[in-house]
């Protein structure tokens, strides 16, 4: 069979996606810079319809036209290198898909560059890690719509399926839209992980719960509205014992320095650039940064005083339920910010993003898959122009029911000296967003006082400057 698609890049993601595509009845051409990896891969899967090539030219020429090539190589310069090597062998109308974790502005640039030579370029966010790639990832492709249509049948077959059977792939929008949405997905992932970790910290250090008890609690929470992949794996992680014999749960033996690959930072940087409040995700990025300063923290822990009231009466069952409610409330704030950022970006970059569809394709395959995405879908189904999910009835009701818990958990943590950047930024965002009046008038007054930056008035239009002081 002539291969209907080629996969370039035989590291873990490329190999698993190639096997996934092959398992849906396609013949897949495969190529890797280091040929021995291609050779080993096809040898390990000799019963599969895989066609190896050891030069780019052979690889491209082996494909059915218009050609469909999925790049799964290291993001950044390596992606540019491979594109430039492939380009001379492509014809007008061929489709290149970059499935790497690429910065969306690189995708916008590449899409424009290749478009001028008649090559279609799709930047596709892929989520779900190696297992997702093999069994069914969530896919977020952006680029030329007609190019998407050429690859849609394959992508639809390999994507994860939501509980109602809907494939977790959809055309996201032009140029960098797909990689942008993947970036927001990753930012939201940072927020979710931070909020779950804060919940764990409060259970452990305020309520004195054991890892087994916490595991059971998270498993219980996973049956309700918090149901999600990350809550599920948390409940499992807490049950694993140290494999090096300390007798402790493995999680308690893991150093508390949270690393990152920069995608959370990208979404925060873009929020700053587009002037969108995105505090929960950004606090989560900062939380990882301060976690990395382990030596400094250990040193400061011996120097800086802690003055807290240890006599606060705590009703364990009550506080535990409040943590659950605060977690759901805070997660909603994080998603509200992430979706509003996408709305503002969509207008800014002219993408026409479809939020119901985005929520839909995040329901399976990806890391943030969660029950919460169903009410988000419903909110955008009812009103595709919705400014912020908090204005939808479901979320308005949750905010009404759970804000008391969000306030109590945050203030309890603050009184006891436990850091809760996620929880506190969530309730603060809620209070800012619903405030008709903020103290920004005083900021404007100061700006006008020292810099004559002018201000608007509450009672009439126009820009005003006040004569704060007379020249001496
Ligand atoms: P890596 O990101 O580790 O990339 C390794 C691959 O890139 C190898 O095939 C390597 O070829 C190739 N490569 C590196 N530099 C060059 C170059 N200059 N020219 C040609 N080929 C080059 O692999 P992963 O499978 O982990 O990820 C692939 C992409 O998917 C990345 O962009 C990643 O961010 C993204 N991704 C990864 C996920 C994951 O869970 N790992 C999840 C979602 C997306 P060689 O063998 O010759 O060195």
TrEMBL record:
Species classification: Bacteria, Bacillati, Bacillota, Bacilli, Lactobacillales
Coiled-coil region list? none
Which InterPro entries has this protein been placed in?
6-PGluconate_DH-like_C_sf (IPR008927), 6PGD_dom2 (IPR013328), 6PGDH_C (IPR006114), 6PGDH_Gnd/GntZ (IPR006113), 6PGDH_NADP-bd (IPR006115), NAD(P)-bd_dom_sf (IPR036291), Pgluconate_DH (IPR006183)
UniProt function note: Catalyzes the oxidative decarboxylation of 6-phosphogluconate to ribulose 5-phosphate and CO(2), with concomitant reduction of NADP to NADPH.
Q: Which GO terms describe its biological process?
A: D-gluconate metabolic process; pentose-phosphate shunt
What is the annotated quaternary arrangement, including any partners?
Homodimer.
- Give the catalysed reaction(s), semicolon-separated: 6-phospho-D-gluconate + NADP(+) = D-ribulose 5-phosphate + CO2 + NADPH
- Binding residue positions for substrate: 101, 127-129, 185-186, 190, 261, 288, 447, 453
Q: Which domain of life is it from?
A: Bacteria
Keyword annotations of the record: Gluconate utilization, NADP, Oxidoreductase, Pentose shunt
Q: Does the keyword Hydrolase apply?
A: no
Residues that bind NADP(+): 9-14, 32-34, 73-75, 101
This one is known as 6-phosphogluconate dehydrogenase, decarboxylating
The molecular function GO annotations come to: NADP binding; phosphogluconate dehydrogenase (decarboxylating) activity
Location of the 6-phosphogluconate dehydrogenase C-terminal domain: 178-469
- Cite the SUPFAM superfamilies for this sequence: 6-phosphogluconate dehydrogenase C-terminal domain-like (SSF48179), NAD(P)-binding Rossmann-fold domains (SSF51735)
Enzyme Commission designation: 1.1.1.44
Pathway annotation: Carbohydrate degradation; pentose phosphate pathway; D-ribulose 5-phosphate from D-glucose 6-phosphate (oxidative stage): step 3/3
Q: Which residues form the active site?
A: 182, 189
As for family, the record states: Belongs to the 6-phosphogluconate dehydrogenase family.
Q: Point out the signal peptide segment.
A: none
């Amino acid at each position: 069979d002539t291969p209907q698609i080629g996969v370039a890049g035989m590291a873990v993601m490329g190999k698993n996606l190639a096997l996934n595509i092959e398992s849906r009845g396609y013949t897949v051409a495969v190529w890797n810079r280091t040929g021995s990896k291609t050779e080993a891969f096809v040898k390990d899967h000799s019963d599969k319809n895989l066609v190896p090539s050891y030069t780019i030219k052979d690889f491209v020429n082996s494909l059915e036209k218009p050609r469909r090539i999925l790049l799964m190589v290291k993001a950044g310069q390596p992606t540019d290198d491979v594109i430039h090597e492939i380009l001379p062998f492509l014809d007008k109308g061929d489709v290149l898909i970059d499935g790497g974790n690429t910065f969306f502005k690189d995708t916008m640039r590449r899409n424009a560059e290749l478009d001028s030579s008649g090559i279609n370029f799709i930047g596709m966010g892929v989520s779900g890690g190696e297992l997702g790639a093999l069994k069914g990832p969530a896919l977020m492709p952006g680029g030329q719509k007609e190019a998407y249509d050429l690859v849609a049948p394959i992508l639809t077959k390999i994507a994860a399926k939501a509980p109602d059977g809907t494939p977790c792939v959809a055309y996201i929008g032009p140029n960098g839209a797909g990689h942008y949405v993947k970036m927001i997905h990753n930012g939201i992932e940072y927020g979710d992980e931070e909020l779950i970790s804060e919940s764990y910290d409060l259970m452990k250090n305020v309520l004195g719960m054991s890892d087994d008890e916490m595991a059971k609690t998270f498993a219980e929470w996973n049956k309700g509205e918090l149901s999600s992949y990350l809550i599920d794996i948390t409940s499992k992680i807490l049950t694993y014992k140290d494999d090096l014999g300390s007798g402790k749960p493995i999680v308690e033996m893991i150093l508390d320095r949270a690393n990152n690959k920069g995608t959370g930072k990208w979404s925060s940087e873009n929020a700053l650039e587009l002037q969108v409040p995105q505090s929960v995700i950004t606090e989560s990025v900062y939380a990882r940064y301060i976690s990395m300063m382990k030596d400094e923290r250990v040193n400061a822990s011996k120097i800086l005083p802690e003055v807290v009231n240890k006599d606060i009466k705590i009703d364990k069952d009550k506080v535990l339920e409040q943590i659950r409610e605060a977690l759901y409330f805070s997660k909603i704030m994080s998603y509200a910010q992430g979706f509003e950022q996408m709305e503002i970006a969509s207008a800014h970059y002219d993408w026409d993003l479809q939020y119901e569809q985005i929520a839909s394709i995040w329901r399976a395959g990806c890391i943030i898959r969660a029950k919460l995405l169903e009410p988000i879908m419903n909110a955008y189904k009812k009103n595709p122009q919705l400014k912020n999910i908090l204005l939808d009835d479901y979320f308005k009701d949750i905010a009404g029911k759970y804000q008391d818990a969000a306030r109590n958990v945050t203030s309890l943590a603050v009184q006891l000296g436990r850091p809760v950047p996620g929880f506190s930024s969530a309730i603060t965002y809620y209070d800012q967003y619903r405030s008709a009046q903020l103290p920004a008038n005083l900021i404007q007054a100061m700006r006008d006082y020292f810099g004559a930056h002018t201000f608007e008035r509450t009672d009439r239009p126009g820009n005003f400057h006040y004569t704060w002081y007379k020249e001496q």
